[in-house]
Specification:
This is TraM recognition domain-containing protein. Keywords: Cell membrane, Membrane, Transmembrane, Transmembrane helix. Pfam families: TraG-D_C. This protein has three domains: about 100 residues, no CATH class; about 300 residues, Rossmann fold; about 120 residues. The chain contains 23 helices and 13 strands. Strands 2-1-13-12-9-3-8-7-4-6-5 form an eleven-stranded mixed sheet, sandwiched between helices. Strands 10-11 form a two-stranded antiparallel sheet. About 40% of the residues are buried.
Amino acid sequence: MSRPLAQELHRPTTQRLSRTSSGTDLLLALLFVLLGAAVAFGSAAWMVGNTANLLVGDGTWVAFNPAEALLHPGAVWPGLSSTALLVGARLFPGVLVLALLVTVGVAVIRRRSQRTSGLAGPADVRPLLKKEITAKAQSLRPSLADLKPKEVDPADRGILIGTLSRGRAEVRASWEDVIVAIMAPRSGKTSGLAIPAILSAPGPVLLTSNKAANDAFTATVDARAEVGTVWTLDPQQIAHHPRQMWWNILADARDLAGAKRLAGHFVAASVDESSGSDFWSTAAANTLGALFLAAASHRRPITDVLDWLASPADRNPVDLLSDAGHHAVAAQLQGTVSGAVETRDGIYETARQYASCLLDTEIAAWVTPTPDLPEFKPAEFARSRDTLYLLSKDGGGSASAIIAAAADAVMRAAVVVAERSGGRLDPPARCVLDEAANVCKINDLPDLYSHLGSRGVIPITILQSYRQGQKCWGEAGMDSLWSAATIKVVGSGIDDADFADKLSRIIGDHEVQTTTVSTSESGKSTSVSTRTERILPPDAIRALPKGKALLLATGMRVAMLDLKPWYKEPIAKTVGPASERATKAITARALAKSEAFGTVA
């Protein structure tokens, strides 16, 4: 017989023996289980039958004999009626044994799942589960300190992330965790993370978004209106919301640091991180910051900055800076104005492009003092249970600079309020930065993450991909944001091979045992080998189903979670109709506006 043919004949024999061996082991295990169940059933029948005989029979206690109790209960307890024998020696012991088998079976399955999956179980994420997360909430929030643990409302314990796929326990982030979520569009990031976080917030809530209808805005606006005042900053009419407030965008620009920070938001909204540090961008940002400082120092509206940008030779801002005591800034601005005409015009033109969204009077009106409308004040908001919706389109001409400036102002004001209130906000502020890389580009958000959580200001930055964050904050900035986040949630739709491989390596490896059975002329031999393989290879991460997410919490093994979208929860009975009403209201406002401008036939 040729060697290849011999090999082909040998291979099926080995596989067949392996299957037979596995089948024999399974039958043997099943036999032991049945034998153990019979012994347990007989023992339970003996115990319960004797108890029943003491209560309703002749009162004698029969010596231990599980076989007779199992096979001939009538002979063992002749004084018991047929009904008592059925219940005492059959039904009740059967229920006990069945419960025991189910309990043991579930425990075995869980242990086997833990051993083979390599992902975290309840013991690995105990600090995020009910008992410890409640204790931590009471230690961080003085308002909860005097309550008994069972009296603490679930929403006050922390932010619900999901339930463990192994164990079904609820997993919550604490009131000092800062969160980054990376989830592709339509993977449940809004329904399973953003909306539940907003609806359950015990304190003030901030949401940034580039959508309104059938999204987080419509799903939560009615519910949050019952908690506190709802403020909506909608400069580009995403929700066609009437202007019922104004915010002084220059309130924090009354010193040089605040003015430069505001200018940075306008720059970040127009250029990505890679091109934001060239000469023209830097010079335009300095000029824009000087003009903001000039306007803010004398309570001028931001629209005055547009007038100064249009006329570089105007000495008004230089004089205003000098009068306010900002002599160095005035001298620098004067140097720019007095420099070469080509350079000056280039700097001013670049600055004009950065501030171009303010040319739209409808947009500028939201950040211009309006005496007959209430003013939104970030510091007061931080002490309230109000809600701020920041809505903007992404892309060219968007008002994302205003949205980023408002979100930044709220978080920084909340930190100041916390520092003046014992160090932490109670209740904490929840800042859901949905579409953060598109409509809320805060340059130093990675740096803010390092201390926001310690002040009770909880950011939840939601991105569509890791590369989206790299484009917004640069590679180093995104790495810093990722590292600073104490809770990281990765959902389905990860198509970035590098990021998937990075996650796979972070999740780690586990050992897998392989049993090989082979035969030869000398007989059968069995060998057991161990190999190391990835717990979740990159292709498995890419194929993560919708509704599932990976949880990477600081100091804990990676866990698999099931998200809890709002529409699968009891709140859907009220949130669903409320969302439909809010969506219809947006449609009605849009149609009314179109008819008013004659754009609808």
